[in-house]
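so my prof wants the structure for this chain in the tokens format not the other one, which i didnt know existed until like an hour ago. anyway here's the sequence
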Amino acid sequence: MTRTENTNITGEDLAGGSLAVFDVCDTLYFSNTTHDFVRFAADNKMSGIRRSIFHIFNARISPLFWLLLVMSRLSGKDIHKSLNIGLLGGMSSQEVEKLASKFYQEFLSDKKISVSHALMHDARKAGHVILLCSSSIEPVVKAVAEGIGADKYLCTELEVLDDHISGKISHEVQGIKIGNIRERFPDDEVALAVSDNLSDASLLAAAQKAIAISYSDRASQFWKDQNVEVIDLKQ
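here's what i got, hopefully its the right format
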């Protein structure tokens, strides 16, 4: 692992801001948390039929996986994510929240990215509000926020009908995080933003201090072209 210099956060770095914003998937944890959570639910709670459907959608040896991937790229929509969320349909919201807490404790705890958690520690010590802003689903992000003591969170919200998950998304934040933050917290400035997502470029551009987590030379160059500090985690 290589990393740029001066990634320690100080009060001077964050002067004048109030929010320290962190992505979750592949920023705080080595995980696509929505996908991994649905797999966790399939293995622990779902019927054999739903479990089989999950693996048909997501196994790389399945032709359907590659077809869905091509369709996602052509449409600009994450079809795998929508289908996986659909498999949660019919589960009670309370059951899903309990399962998400178990997922955090048993699965994510071993996938922590230490460098970004250190940045979070520094930001909290500097007196800033920790905001998780992730396109992962609310039960997972809520469990992570509670587990690490984040102050607030924004995420993809699931439709709930009669206290049960419908299997549909009611609000998606991917690609529009900064707009959501400004709408929800109009009086707060973004002091720090940390993410690995290229789609979060507008969020990082709006922050007083921006740090990108990178897993490839292409991503590193993308961020460097925008004068964003890079932490390189590629193997």
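also thought this was worth mentioning. Residues 1-7 have pLDDT under 50 and may be disordered.
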